[in-house]
Amino acid sequence: MHSNLWIFIWRRKLSFLLVVSGLVLLGLWTWAILIDTTAAAQPPAALLSSSERQQQQQQQQSTGYQQVHIIQKLIEQANRVLRAERLKDNAVEKSPSPVQRLGNVRFLRPTQAKKAPLPMSESFLFEQERLKILEQQQRQRNAGMEELNANAEDERMLSSAERQTQYEHELQRMGVPVVAGIGPDGPRAPAERLVHLDLKGAPPKLSFLKQLLPVLRALGATGLLIEYEDMFPYSGVLQPLAAHNAYKEDELRDFLECAALHGLSVMPLVQTFGHMEYVLKLSGFEQMRELAESPQSICPSQPQSMALLEQMLTQVIELHSQCLGQATPATNVPVAQIRFTHIHIGCDEVQRMGECTTCRQRLRSELFLSHVVSMAHFIRRQWPHLGVVIWDDQLRSMSLSELQHSQVGSYVEPMVWVYASDIYRFIQPQLWDTYAKVFPSAWTASAFKGAFGESLLVPPLQHHLENNIRWLAVIAKEGGRFSKGLRGLALTGWQRYDHFAVLCELLPVGIPSLMTSLSTVSKGYFSTNPRDNELLRVLQCVFQPDSRRSGRPWLELHPNAHHSQLFAVCNYPGHLVFKYALRLFDKLAEIRLYLQQTRDQSAWLSDYNVRHNFSSPLRVRELTDRTPMLIEELRAMAREAQQLLWEVYDEYTVTEFVEQHIYPTIEALQRQLARAEMLLQRRTWPQRPLPLPLKVQEDMGLVTHQQEQQ
Length: 710
What we know:
InterPro entries: GH, HEXDC-like
Number of helices: 25
Organism: Drosophila mauritiana (Fruit fly)
Function: Has hexosaminidase activity. Responsible for the cleavage of the monosaccharides N-acetylglucosamine (GlcNAc) and N-acetylgalactosamine (GalNAc) from cellular substrates. Has a preference for galactosaminide over glucosaminide substrates.
CATH architecture of the domain at 192-325 and 334-351 and 362-544: Alpha-Beta Barrel
CATH class of the domain at 192-325 and 334-351 and 362-544: Alpha Beta
Protein name: Hexosaminidase D
Helix content: 40-55%
CATH topology of the domain at 192-325 and 334-351 and 362-544: TIM Barrel
Number of strands: 12
Shape: extended
Strand content: 5-15%
GO molecular function: hexosaminidase activity
Distance between the termini: 145 Å
Structural class: alpha/beta
């Protein structure tokens, strides 16, 4: 019986193999249906972003390819088994049946009926199934490609408003100010981008400025606006105007040639009306003041005033003109010509004008315009190729008829400056229309430091960036009013508010603000793509964070924040000074809070306790326990400032910085120790109530009850 069963199985082996293969195929088809059902339960593609839709489609295609690959392998294996069985059956049919003998008994192998060849449909069953699967997969693949192409086409077909909305959303994540109309599809960048070097305070070493030139050029600067003041090497009768640490003439020539090598133009700035303190403060020049007690502005009615200004302009212009085509002494390689096409003659913030006896006989507007035209006429007569630029603030209050009657538009180009975020608050559309009717072209000016506080240590980067971005929008809107357009934008970086003021933010501390604003102005918008933004490359940042992995943008700016963590890990000229300034800022803020708490908020070291010499010794010692340690920390930071700043500045700037920012806090801590020492000297204290000190009574005008009775 068992033999017959095995004989039956052996004869029907092909049928059993077909049944097993069919079951395998049925299982695979069931698996595919379950996967399709799971994919259908995923969120609709309409709710996903384009990048998520593409990623999902790629995963689905990859899964489908793997399934088809497995099915194809199984089908190929089944076809090989079928072919092998057919060959074996054919061989058995052709060979004679062997006869086995055992003694007198003969056993014959059971005869097999001839198998008819498998019909065409049966022999190619799996091949047809494979072709159907491949055809279906090809249709799916074509459908996926069509969907990808449709998505790409949808992105290309996004309206400008939709792209702008996506761009502004990314700006908000980064803390970058959003200005309507400024983006990748917005207006073009200004043609000229000048970087202002204010040398009337903390003048850097020219070796440091030379290191800065390639960085400025790489981020899109086209020129320099150099305000020398007393750092210019005046000679002859003007030699007293130069400071004791003024630049040497050969050093300045070398720097100007280096600027030409990097393709930067140079526009020198010489004040010729207001901000003349560095000249009029000196003995021998005081007679040219508008008012004897103030050296702020020069009197335009005195003949010697014009002679002095002409000599100053001549020396500055001649030095820059002589630098054309010179060879660098170190390399003896001819340099390119310096682009010296304009000179700036200042004329801003003329505080005391028209107040002397002679000037009082003329209108202020007439006095100002006449002086500006005279200076410009002198320059155009001597150097016809030079254009003349002035600050615009003194023109804002003048009428259109006054400006046109003076013909000032034929002599100068105004540089319109506003450092706040609301530019139209200071320059209304009507004023733009007036300027366009008087001047064929004009310049604009923003700020990257020195505009939000007379003695700040670190510039507020976000405020300056917003100022520059808003200027891009104003330039795009108002440039069409002028017949020759707006020439460009100057990014100013003030070092003092005037000659007598203390220092603003140092130039190395303002470099992150400068680079961020400069790259934005040069591109015409702030690029949110780190690969497209030049900051990371030019500033040599150590890391390039991937916002897709961390979930955080590569640059983060926040209101009232002075910096982003990005600039703390970058390597650029002056980066050590910037990092030091951040640490000093935090330390000074910590000590100010400490002094406020111990003096104004505590109950044992207040002014009242000191006036009455009445306090608890234990509490006083507890409150002043940290003071000696803080004094030593500040002294260590002062010594560190000397080492770091020496790479950028001379000893005069280093000592001025330390005296301005560190020494006052040390003095405050020492005063606190002296007050505490006085309170600790006492060993007995009077009974309450404590009498009112006589000085307090007199200063406040109080009358005691005893005085009323008397």
